Amino acid sequence: MLIQIILIAAIVVIGILVIRNPGSDSHLAIRRLLLFGFVIVAVLSVLFPQWLSWVASLIGVGRGTDLLLYALVLVVLVVIATQYRTNVEQNRRITQLARRIALLEARERERTPAGPGDPGLPPDRFDAPR
Q: Is the pTM of this model over 0.90?
């Protein structure tokens, strides 16, 4: 029962962290603290494997390996959530960049007079030479 409460609380915290602004200093500090805590727990688990079994039995999990599996599931959820947010932010930036480029090209077309054989489009620096 205790492990269920812990897992549900962890999932809720992960959900809240996903909603928060990823660029804030407090968000970065929380990630660093969690990473530091993870490293400490990982080192202790390697040095004292019976410690993990003791913690598992303390919170109602049968074995230390089961507790490790639950922890890894939570870590995977965090990674998925972080990657999702990163993708959303990158897509937003790419969209803004594409819009700016389109507006700049439209303004350039307005300024450039069309010549006798010119279709009215300025040569794009990414296009092949004409």
A: no
Structure-token match 């959900």, residue found: 15
- Taking the alpha carbons at both ends of the chain, their separation in whole angstroms is 72
CA dihedral 30, 34, 39, 45 (to 10 degrees): 160
Q: What is the DSSP letter of 37?
A: H
The pLDDT tens digits of the residues spanning 9-55 come to: 887 887 776 666 666 666 677 777 877 887 788 888 888 889 889 98
User: In this structure, is the dihedral angle defined by the CA atoms of residues 43, 46, 51 and 56, taken in order, positive or negative?
Assistant: positive
Distance CA 46, CA 7 (A): 23
Give just the sign of the alpha carbon dihedral 24, 28, 33, 38.
Answer: positive
- For the stretch 38-51, pLDDT in tens is 778 888 888 888 98
